[in-house]
Amino acid sequence: MQRKLMKALLLFSEYKVKKETYPSWGHEDAYSYLGQIAVREEQVEQASDYYSKALEINSSNMYVKYKLIPALEEAMRVKKGE
């Protein structure tokens, strides 16, 4: 799964929208999924980077802002033993 998401990111870097009617969705989703994988693998810094990149693409992504990032912050607190 992770390899396919990385390939999707590579393809997004090459993709240029030619018309407004062409699809442009999914880029931020690849980053949010990679972030979730990183959380499961306890790579919290990497997860934070992925979530930040998702928000750079779409700063109004409510799922990343209000679900994934708070869950990551909680995982970081638990890991530190707070």
Tell me about this structure:
With 82 residues, the chain is mostly helical. The chain has a single domain (2-80), classed as Alpha Horseshoe (Serine Threonine Protein Phosphatase 5, Tetratricopeptide repeat), CATH 1.25.40. It contains four helices and no strands. The termini are far apart.
Summarize this entry quickly.
By secondary structure, this protein is an all-alpha fold. The protein has four helices and no strands.
Determine the N-to-C terminus distance: 32 Å
- What's the pLDDT, averaged over the residues? 91
The domain count comes to 1
Helix tally? Answer: 4
The CATH class assignment is Mainly Alpha
Radius of gyration from the CA trace? Answer: 14 Å
Instruction: Predict the CATH topology.
Output: Serine Threonine Protein Phosphatase 5, Tetratricopeptide repeat
Low-confidence runs: none
Give the amount of beta strand, in percent: under 5%
Q: What would you call the shape?
A: elongated
Structural class by secondary-structure content: mainly alpha
CATH architecture: Alpha Horseshoe
How many individual β-strands? 0
Q: Mind summarizing the main beta sheet? A: none
Order of helices and strands: HHHH
DSSP helix fraction: over 70%
